[in-house]
Amino acid sequence: MRSFPLLLTGAAFVAALSTNLTAASHLKDAATGDPKLRSVGAMSFGPGGLLLVTEPRHAAIVAIETGDTGPVQKLKQRVDNVGALLAARLGAPEGGVTIADMAVNPASGKIYLSVTRKPDNASLIVVVTADGQAAPLDYAKAKHARVSLPAADTARVGNVSDVAFAGDRVLAAGSSNEEFSSKIFTLSLPLAHGGSAVPVSAETYHVAHGKWETKAPITSFVPMEENGKHYVVGSFACTPIAKFELNDLKPNAQVKGTSVVELGSGNRPLDMFTYEKDGKQWLVTHTQRFHQNLFGPSKYWGARVDMSHVKVRDEAKINQKAVRRDVKQPKGPDGIEIVDSLFGAVHVDKLSNTEVVVLREQGTALALEIAPLP
């Protein structure tokens, strides 16, 4: 097994694996051609240009071998009115394209958008190149595998909120209509076309609510390795950050997470990633505020958290006693602060340890641009 640094998450985790693995090596009995996506939601990348796409209304993950392996070329300049650009390229009426998520391919810097086109409600993946040109993903030679996300015999999975490549497996999060509705799904590698994931029920202490909860699903997460152990670090609405050890994710198990940070009530997490600056690791959670008292010029905002808060093991600093962000100040306590460059960001994904790609509010439109990390 390849060795990794003490802490390796998100795009860095994928980049390390990309040096000796290809996307094709992670698919089994793959089909070739158009996967005919039935719905689209959250996306992320694995090694070698392997794109992971959620089908949120159909309880499945579709892995697509894009063949997009570099070299890296980042967006050269801001792209204004992205909605109009997509409508023109997809033959849709004005306002006829809805963007579900955005993912940056770390191997190439290209930007991928999962979208729904009206009036035919087609589910599509659009690729934006460094020069700002947009086109649907070409499936002609692309191999793909679709893996279903099951629930109990009498239940169903009603939503799939996130997906990520996690070294020796793929992880997904979502919810079902069971009593323990919060779910984490483990997808074994290689991903077998027509296969099924292993469901695990998750329970989390919601610090702002003062109780353990089984209903609210992880809305965004990153994989993490720490001291030889592997975790999924997830954020939830209202807004605890909790970690789950992957070794605990057994078939049909009920697992309790460890809440380590509370960002405050009234927020819905949208994206998470990690980056390193001056030798320090940071976890960024980008959220949408649904309470009226905003923290800045937009309901879309983000905060960064020193990873020492996430790695904490002291019983006096977890769950009921997890550190809380000072919601009345832009910073505080030490190691938790608002990221100004994420105000107005509808979708965010990491480009490097210094920059992120941001789909940002631009009046009534959206603009695609590169933003700095603090």
Task: Write a structural description.
The protein has helices spanning about 10-20, 80-90, 305-310; strands at about 25-30, 30, 45, 50-55, 60-65, 95-105, 110-115, 120-130, 135, 145-150, 155-165, 170-175, 180-190, 190, 200-205, 210-215, 220-225, 230-235, 240-245, 255, 260, 265-275, 280-290, 300-305, 325, 335-340, 345-350, 355-360, 365-370. With about 375 residues, the chain is mainly beta. It has a single domain, classed as Neuraminidase (6 Propeller), CATH 2.120.10. The strands form seven sheets. Strands 11, 12, 13, 15, 16 and 20 form a six-stranded mixed sheet that branches. Strands 2-10-5-4-3 form a five-stranded antiparallel sheet, with no helix packed on it. Strand 17 and strand 18 (about 230-235) form a beta hairpin. It is globular.
